[in-house]
């Protein structure tokens, strides 16, 4: 059956606020993390094209932005993520500029099949699914659903200010709002892995990319700018 967002909390709900440096100075300003609203969907697609697809290790390694079919496929996937109405966005107070975003999704044991066509996206999905298939978080934590994610993207202008860590912290009040007891994600990049650790996530399962390469071409990412893929989780008290 999957999971559908209930009527409450309403959209948009602000889940978290924090203070951090501004984009162009050391001045501390206030940021808020809230639900993505439908009127910003197209803007968010552009945000991910500019701040994710050439930076995230898998997408960069497979040159997703250079393959029209792969780029079209990942854009459709992003819109699908929006449809569950769990994607969150970070704004600076007084501005509508997208500072950061996290494509969130409430995962249940039911298998979600995607009609994949491009080799690039098929390989990325297969590698991520290897992690979740070999580390059953439902059994490990005794839950029937948890909050996962399919991409954290921080605006390049705002990087180096700890915003990724703060956005990951925002999952705690969000999970509590929906009665979820766990959040977990496959973190591909060293920076996101470090941010997750700072936010309290622990590593449940880790596979070195060198070991993935031994499993066949589908799992091989030669020259990838990362050492390992980590499935990391945070229990919600």
UniProtKB/TrEMBL annotation:
N-acetyltransferase domain ranges (all copies): 74-199
Top-level lineage group: Eukaryota
Residue spans crossing the bilayer: none
Pfam families attached to this UniProt entry: Acetyltransf_1
InterPro entries to which the protein is assigned, alphabetical: Acyl_CoA_acyltransferase (IPR016181), GNAT_dom (IPR000182)
Molecular function terms, GO-annotated: N-acetyltransferase activity
Record-given protein name: N-acetyltransferase domain-containing protein
Organism this protein belongs to: Culex quinquefasciatus (Southern house mosquito)
Name of encoding gene: 6031541
């Amino acid at each position: 059956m999957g999971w559908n967002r209930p009527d409450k909390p309403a959209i948009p709900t602000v889940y978290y606020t924090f203070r951090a440096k501004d984009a162009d100075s050391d001045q501390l300003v206030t940021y808020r993390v809230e639900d993505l609203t439908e009127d910003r969907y197209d803007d968010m697609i552009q945000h991910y094209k500019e701040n994710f697809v050439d930076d995230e290790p898998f997408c960069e390694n497979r040159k997703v932005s250079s393959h029209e079919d792969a780029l079209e496929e990942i854009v459709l996937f992003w819109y699908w993520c929006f449809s569950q109405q769990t994607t969150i966005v970070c704004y600076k107070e007084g501005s509508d500029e997208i500072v950061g975003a996290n494509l969130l999704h409430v995962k249940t044991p039911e298998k979600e099949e995607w009609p994949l066509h491009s080799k690039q996206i098929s390989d990325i999905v297969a590698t991520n699914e290897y992690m979740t298939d070999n580390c059953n978080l439902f059994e490990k934590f005794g839950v029937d659903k948890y909050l996962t994610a399919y991409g954290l993207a921080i605006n390049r202008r705002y990087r180096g200010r700890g915003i990724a860590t703060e956005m990951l912290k925002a999952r705690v009040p969000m999970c509590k709002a929906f009665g979820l007891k766990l959040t977990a994600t496959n973190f591909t990049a060293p920076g996101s892995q470090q941010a997750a650790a700072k936010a309290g996530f622990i590593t449940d399962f880790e596979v070195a990319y060198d070991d993935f390469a031994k499993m066949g071409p589908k799992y091989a990412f030669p020259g990838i700018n990362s050492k390992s893929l980590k499935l990391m989780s945070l229990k919600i008290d």
